[in-house]
Amino acid sequence: MENVRDVRLLPKAHLHLHFTGSMRPATLLELADKYGVHLPEALSGGEPPSLRATDERGWFRFQRLYDIARSCLRSPEDIQRLVFEAAEEDVRDGSGWLEIQVDPTSYAPRLGGLIPAIEIILDAVERASRDTGLGIRVLVAANRMKHPLDARTLARLAVRYADRGVVGFGLSNDERRGLARDFDRAFQIAREGGLLAAPHGGELAGPGSVRDCLDDLHAGRVGHGVRAAEDPRLLRKLATRGVTCEVCPSSNVALGVYEKPSDVPLRTLYEAGVPMALGADDPLLFGSRLAAQYELAREHHAFTDEELAELARQSVRGSVAPADVRGRMLAGIDAWVGGGAA
């Protein structure tokens, strides 16, 4: 019988999770109380906020909520708690490998500067990985709302810490703003330093932004990329190159990119042969974590258990996990498919 296995038991890699956005709502409430931060109703009401970021005002509101939540992370202990709890949640959802994305610039003012901030973050990642058994690595992400020179500084920093757990370089925030090619030098620095190029594109902006990620930034993975479904030639390009798209269905709907879960073009991407890694993006704001993305594919797109297993394989193949970790996870996926009902 199809579609009866527990997707939480399906081994998978999580390749699109933002740092502050990974926080548990209860933890945000505790930290806000600790530091006397007034949370708006959208962050304290117990339900995910209503968000539509397809217009400027909606994106500003989303970013403001994220910034308020980030302001509650003020000490190394807060950072350690955040990463440990994110790891716990991922393990609960069947993740065997997590690549978490962070712009350390945003945390530097409260953690003693940029260098202390990245070291505190990497120490927390190392500790959480040891304590939970989850493989965790870091993507350092530049903010495309800031000057490209800032991105170059971050790229050099990311390369400097490649031996401490930094594996990739990203570009986040509203992809409708600025040109990808303005950041080409930063991505060149990162790639020459051995880091994966994984910029955001193709969520709030259309397929052209995905093409820019490929042509101007030489992306090895694309954060989101879901709007590539609108361009058959681009789909073929992604499939031929084997570029994994980090697709986050729940956030696509929450931000108003698609009206309902069944509108997210998972089938279009899958049947075009574009590798996908389902991700939770910002569970704090969107209300669902990793396993829920697989449930969405099952419930709204009729993905069979065999197809869900293939999505999990694609997430593992799209990761930078070492060969032994990949082998172990792929074997676990095969066992999940072969094991019958859970």
Explain this structure:
With 342 residues, the protein is of the alpha/beta class. Strands 1-2-3-4-5 form a five-stranded parallel sheet, sandwiched between helices. The chain has a three-stranded parallel sheet with strand order 6-7-8. Helix 7 runs parallel beside helix 8 and helix 15 packs antiparallel against helix 16. The chain is globular and about 50 Å long. The mean pLDDT is 94.
Given as residue ranges, the uncertain stretches (5+ residues, pLDDT < 50) are none
Number of distinct helices: 16
Oligomer: single chain
Overall pLDDT score: 94
What is the first-to-last residue Cα distance?
A: 11 Å
Shape: globular
Largest sheet: 5 strands, parallel
**What is the alpha-carbon Rg in Å?**
19 Å
How much strand content do the residues show? 5-15%
Helix content: 40-55%
Identify the strand order in the major beta sheet: 1-2-3-4-5
* Succession of helices and strands: EHHHHEHHEHEHEEHEHEHHHHHH
Question: How many β-strand runs?
Answer: 8
Give the helix/strand class.
Answer: alpha/beta
